[in-house]
Specification:
MobA/MobL protein domain-containing protein, two-stranded antiparallel sheet, conjugation, MobA_MobL
């Protein structure tokens, strides 16, 4: 069918309600065929019993569309296709005024019907206002309750997030503490291995130096024994302080000695030189390696690791398989476990060095005192020399002045008259 619709604004000038926006809809009475032509008969379905129901469904659908749009724009207003009676809202329906009553109302003439409708509208307005106030209060209460509920949910969500954040922070802090603790343990293990390597390097160098010294001393001792054995085979010859004498006459003699000849005096001198040379090397080695601090820190770090119930770490180079340990040649390796060698051999040497150093310092102090005394004596002597020189100059000046004065007195003195003879006074 064909539908014609016209939307009208309220006729305010004619006395119509300013809310009376309405539409006029007209239908054709004949149906349209599939080809677009009018059917020959009128379409009377709207006049039948189902027509009223169809229009009612349209009104309901239209009300749903309007309410949907009102909700989308945030309005609380709602419309309904139902009558006041069907709505059961307590409002009264007005009486149909018709064309004549409407025209008289527009002319300002009241009728019984218009006055009755005005009274009904007044009662409905008051009831609507009261219900609106109640509705608004209910809405405020609902909003407040919803707001309280939302705030509670927000607080619950905030508390949950705070708890999760706190839990995450606690876990992170615990992990960091564990990480820092494990890192500190690893630093102790690394420090132990480093200190142990430093001790090993020192011990290797120290005992190599000691062994070399002992070997050199052993060589010259054997050289001395060979020299004594050779000398014992020489008849009528003896030796003192590197000089050979005839056993009978005790005269000094010249004798051809072996190339490796070594007298007792030479042996003592050479031994002292070797001892001094190697002692200097050992002192330099101890000083350069700072071994006292190394051993002290090594023992302290090892005690710290053992107190935690851990095993002392092992250098990767020291780790060997079972078969390597079984068939490998046994090698003495200096480590934390062999610090007894340090206590037995190095500590006494350190004490000797300390005593020697104190002796050297004492000698230096005595030398400084002697130098100070010599300086004082030198200044005193110079002061005495200056004093004597000054006194001599004063004495020379006084004697010179006396001679000068005597000469002047002599020159200015009047000569006495000579006596005429020896008997005159």
């Amino acid at each position: 069918m064909i539908v014609d619709a016209a939307i009208h604004a309220p006729h305010i000038e004619g006395g119509s309600d300013d809310r009376n926006y309405h539409a006029h809809v007209m239908f054709t009475t004949r149906a349209i065929s599939k080809t677009g032509d009018f059917e020959s008969k009128k379409y009377r379905d709207f006049s039948r019993d189902d027509g009223t129901k169809t229009v009612s469904h349209w009104r309901e659908h239209f009300a749903d569309l309007v309410n949907t749009q009102l909700e989308q724009i945030g309005s609380t207003e709602r419309v309904s296709h139902l009558s006041y009676k069907d709505l059961s809202n307590g409002l009264e329906a007005t009486v149909h005024e018709g064309y004549a009553v409407t025209q008289l109302r527009r002319l300002g003439i009241d009728t019984e019907i218009s006055l009755a409708n005005d009274a009904i509208r007044q009662r409905n307005a008051e009831k609507t206002v009261n219900e609106q106030v109640i509705k608004e209060l209910d809405q405020e209460i609902t909003v407040s309750e919803r707001l309280i509920c939302d705030l509670r949910e927000e607080k619950s969500e905030y508390d949950r997030k705070q708890a999760e954040t706190q839990k995450a922070a606690t876990i992170a802090a615990q992990r960091k503490i564990e990480h820092d603790r494990e890192q500190a343990k690893q630093l102790d293990r690394d420090k132990f291995l480093q200190l142990q390597d430093r001790y090993k390097n020192f011990a290797d160098s120290y005992f190599i130096t000691i062994n070399n010294k002992n070997q050199v001393l052993n060589d010259i001792s054997e050289q001395l024994e060979r020299s004594k054995k050779w000398l014992s085979k020489q008849r009528d010859v003896y030796e003192r302080a590197g000089i050979f004498y005839h056993a009978m006459t005790h005269d000094m003699i010249s004798i051809n000695t072996p190339n490796d000849w070594l007298s007792s005096v030479q042996f003592d001198r050479k031994k002292k030189e070797i001892e001094r040379q190697y002692q200097t090397q050992i002192i330099e080695l101890i000083s350069d390696s700072n071994i006292e601090i190394v051993v002290r820190d090594l023992r302290k770090t090892a005690a710290k690791i053992l107190e935690r119930g851990e095993d002392l770490p092992v250098n990767h180079q020291e780790k060997q398989t079972f078969f390597k340990k079984l068939f490998a040649k046994k090698e003495y390796v200096h480590s934390y476990e062999t610090l007894s060698d340090y206590d037995e051999h190095v500590v006494p040497m350190l004490k000797k060095i300390e005593i020697r150093q104190k002796h050297i310092e004492h000698q230096k102090e005595k030398q400084l005192e002697r130098e100070k005394l010599d300086e004082i004596e030198k200044k005193r002597y110079e002061q005495e020399v200056r004093q004597i020189k000054l006194e001599n100059e004063k004495r020379y000046e006084s004697e010179r002045n006396q001679r000068y004065q005597s000469q002047r007195d002599f020159e200015t003195e009047q000569p006495k008259p000579r006596p005429k003879n020896d008997f005159e006074p």
